[in-house]
# Entry
Amino acid sequence: MMNLCSNGVQGSALLFPRRTLLLPHSASTASIASDLYLVNNPAPSRGAASTPTLTKVPVCRSSEKKNNPNSTIDFLKGIGLDDSQVENSLPILLRCKVEKTLIPKIRVLQDFGICGSELISLIASDPYVLTRLSRNSLLAKLDFLKSILGSVENARNAIKKAKWLLSASLTKILQPNFELLKSYGISDERLQKFLVTNSRCLSVNPKHVQESLVRVEQELGIPRESGMFLYGFKVMVSLSKRDSELKFELFKRYGWSESDVLVMAKRLPQCLLISEARLKTRMDFFVNKLGYEIGYLAARPPLLLLSMEERILPRYAVLQVLQEKELMNPSIYSVMCASESRFLDTYVLPFKDNLPELYEAYAGGKKSDDSSVQKGPTGQSSRMRKLEHMLLGFLVVEAILCTVLIEQELNFDSMLCHWPIAKREGRQRTLKSDSDRAVDVFSLCVMF
# Structure
């Protein structure tokens, strides 16, 4: 029986309870080839019950050396795959022998700490990881990821972000791409932090990686020494040269000059990935309604990624009240980019007793915005839209942190050494120095 993996989840054992394979099946019988078992699942006839019946998959008994499909199914179900996951993985894994192929590779993954739900998700997303690699190749690939990312935990997180990472060739894809990135003078520490959350960039064709690295400097004007170089690389990997040209043309249609787009891209390359609809709403609000110049937005690109409903409109309502009552006159950028707790502590709660309508306007605006997007035209819930807002929020957090680091000429390590102090003191002290200002932004990112 297999050992327990690092997180305490018991690995798959050789001694699985014997079960009979059950799959959705119609009245027709499953056909069997000499060494390949195919389950036919035609659509049920009109008038048939919507719930499929269950039928056994016939087993070929012509030779004891033939692989039994039921043993493969039993094994997959034994490690936790559900019926739909088994059915999707079956065409790829059916010919694999459980004892000689599947179990040794599962053991390698479990010994690396990939077990339980992680293991199930990996196999369901990329069953080829159990067929294309030998046991030794899988071991070598995991060791390589551990060595370049600094730890087993980082390697596991990278695999979670790009589950097909283990299917990429070690010698033709992963190693050449890593060497290309290092050839640009990027430190191991910076690469580790970047690749853990952007591991997809490692599995791209090396030729495309080389072209993307060149385009970051040539098209975006971001030097390789810049803290935003890797983020520009991430964008260029996602955009072909033609797609990049179309994005520039999109901004120009809304009145941006090429220099404006380049200023924005150098500060926050991710803005090149925004949709036309998002750009239009931000332009309508900040430029057409409030009268800000395009140059103002180009120099403060996080404003393009903030949610209109969840952040921009409710906070602008508060800003309007503060300015009308001549209580405060902060910049709109400071108001929009503050964390939720900092925004309330600075702009709302101090005036709650004397100006209760301020808090009511903010809470009412958020409630109104939420109710207006609860259901779309098809009556579906707003969960997907909220998920989009959350993901865009992470981009904004990343952008604000990197922008402040560049402006204050600080590095990430200097911020980390100050962060515990700010956290211990409960953020009650006044932040005066440049380093303290950076710590404030870092805490903003953590609390976002």
Remarks:
- The mean pLDDT is 74.
- The two ends are 45 Å apart (CA to CA).
- The first strand starts at residue 22 and ends at 25.
- Residues 28 and 40 are 8 Å apart (CA to CA).
